[in-house]
Design brief:
single chain, alpha+beta, three-stranded antiparallel beta sheet, elongated
Amino acid sequence: MPNYTFENKKTKKEFSLTMKMDELGPYLIANPDVQQIFTKFPGIAAPWNVSGVSGKATNAKKGFKEVLNKIHKRTPGSRLNKTTEI
């Protein structure tokens, strides 16, 4: 179950609760003095950064470079061929 961070609007105190996603909406409706706050956001993994080495993919699928090249050729101003090393 996910952890959610909340702030009491009156006291400005932050607290965390663990609940199911479908319980979040009813909890916020039942507690109007509480608002959800976001302390961190999930990261986005780029296909060329999966290995942890920025700009280089060690396990890229065969043909992925061809797809990037096709996108580059059809997209004016694209820098795909200059920013990725696959």
